[in-house]
Amino acid sequence: MFALLNELSELVYISDVNTYEMIFINESAKTLFGVGSDVSGRKCYEVLQGRSSPCGFCTNSKLCHDKFYTWEIFNRKLSRHYLLKDKLISWNGREARLEIAIDITEKENQKDTLKNALDAEVAVLNCVKVLTEAESHGDAVSKVLENVGLFLAAERTYIFEIRDKFIDNTYEWCAPGVSPQIDNLQGLPISLISFWRESFDAGQCLVITDIEELRETRRDEYEILRAQNIRSLIAAPLAADGRLVGYLGVDNPPAARILHISPLLITLANFITGTMQRRLYQRRLEELSYNDMLTGLYNRNAFIRDVESLSKNGFKSLGIVYVDVNGLKKCNDEYGHAAGDLALVKTAKTVESVFREKGNSTYRIGGDEFVVLSPNLSEEYFSSLVAKLKAKIGRDEDGMRSFSMGWRWASGGCDIQSLLTEADEQMYLDKKQFYRSKAATKRYRACSDEVIGLGDPEALRCQLDDGRFLVYFQPKVSVADHKPIGAEALTRYLSSEGALIAPDQFISLLENNRLIWMLDFWVFGFVCRKIRQWLDLGKKVLPISVNFSRATISETDFVERLEEAWRQWKVPKELLEIEVTETVELDDEKNFLDIVKRVKEAGFRISIDDFGARYANLSLFAASCFDVLKIDRCLVRDLPDNPTAFAVLKAISDICRKMNIRVIAEGVENERQLNALLEIGCDGLQGFHFSRPIPLEEYQAKYLNAQEGRGTA
């Protein structure tokens, strides 16, 4: 029998159940446990477990003669897992224990690996949930570092971010009893991680199992790590757009785990980088949303925000200055828009130079209008600043003042809107003095005499029915090959003498009289009717965009009226694009956003028009509820010679590309602008360089005739 047991590769032994003395151990077990041929008198717990007393987990009490008792154990002496089969036997009149041990270490290792992988997956999912659901980016990252530290049983987890040639510890979690290091790890030279870059550039973790290995070869790095009580670490790269932006680090994880946690950290690093990029984009959007791109001042969005804040929080006193640039239209017409922009920038610098001290805020709230809010200043001091600004007003070549201004001051408890109105009225009185000496100007005639009567709804309806409003089309072309990709429908008014009147002569009149909706829906119906005719003729039809004033689109029943107008012709909605203009300010921005989202949900495409002109509404941008962003001509005009405008548009284009928003540049007039826009990465172009707005008949001849395409739908 012994000979048979000695042939087995499994471990077999027999021991006395009462005295624990070894009776027999087979050759495989002798070899593994390192015992000689004679084990008589030795105890089983001594030979097998290296213990000096019986094992607390001994199963003698559970054994019987009829069947084997099966269980598992990790043998610490051998560092192996075993499946054990035990039963009682009679041996020369003694009650003995027979045990057969089968090595299942590999199987257990596989189970442990699978369990660790599943645990890591759960940990990653929990961290991703935190990153995506938390309102605060900082709170989310801090919670993720805590989760990672606890899961890995590490002493410290942290994030470093690269700032030019330096690295800063921006986030940190420490286990209980571990001293924080974040304050000591700011502005470190990036050269300290130069040896780490090879791993990071390959998208791999940097693993240091023992920092003592660095003592001689990388002394500076070693001293910084040793000062933080770091014995080992693992770091995963944070990369965005192929560029290293930082790293995620774990200090002193258990030695048994340090070589197996790289996949977890790489995955988490990717999600953290995504969150950091979203934070960066959000910060850029906020900057764009509240800053005027031309002058660098706050814009109308910031003005509305700050007025609401003052109204809510109160103030001891409030001074308001209204400033309006004189003769801007004349300057634009005679010297070009670059000269007009220069006048605006000069005015902005002049106003800000007087009201630059803390507490005062200067805003560009319209094309040529600026406002200063000065809370909590004494009336005497505020008046001295106003006098200083008046003294700085420049003169043009005719000796006329460069800008007009009005101002008001009141103690706390006043109505801000009333104060604004009073300052505005004073500014316009000042402005009239300027234009009284400029008899030739028509600055204060909102439109020509020909169209003043359009302020009457019945007169407007008659002119629409009589065909006095004409729809022109300006093509949009692909930036890649300059082939047409769509067109914008634009309105002209035909005077009684047969002259075409541009929309800037009648749009403001219709908006002020709340009649713009009549023209907007008339143009929309005209475009739908034409698209239906073209489709029925088998023409290849390109998408047409129709402008809607924000006054029109802000009406609560706008979507229903839009659907009703569309149902008359039922053209494919992908051939229609709703362009939102920014000429009317809204009190209820949330309501406007809701309407825009409903327009999208109804299947129409949304385009934000005139982005960058005046106070383009970037709350829409942040909400990502539109499909196309149209860059206004004021940014395109001097793009080749304006590095700031180029950088802004490049950042906007990059953000739009990531958000799947198409970018169309308006006002493209020459090759230099075109080349700059190609470098920026716009999707489409529109402007005189390709085509002026053309009449319907010319558009049909150039872009529709003899083209087969989409049939009746």
TrEMBL record:
- Please name the InterPro entries in this protein's record: Cyclic-di-GMP_PDE-like, EAL_dom, EAL_sf, GAF, GAF-like_dom_sf, GGDEF_dom, Nucleotide_cyclase, Rev_trsase/Diguanyl_cyclase
Q: Which Gene3D superfamilies match?
A: 3.30.450.40, 3.30.70.270, EAL domain
Classify the source by domain of life: Bacteria
Q: Known SUPFAM superfamilies for this protein?
A: EAL domain-like, GAF domain-like, Nucleotide cyclase
Q: Where is the EAL domain?
A: 453-707
State the Gene Ontology terms under molecular function. cyclic-guanylate-specific phosphodiesterase activity
Q: Which residues form the GGDEF domain?
A: 316-446
Task: Please identify the protein, giving its name as recorded.
Answer: Diguanylate cyclase
Species this chain originates from: Cloacibacillus porcorum
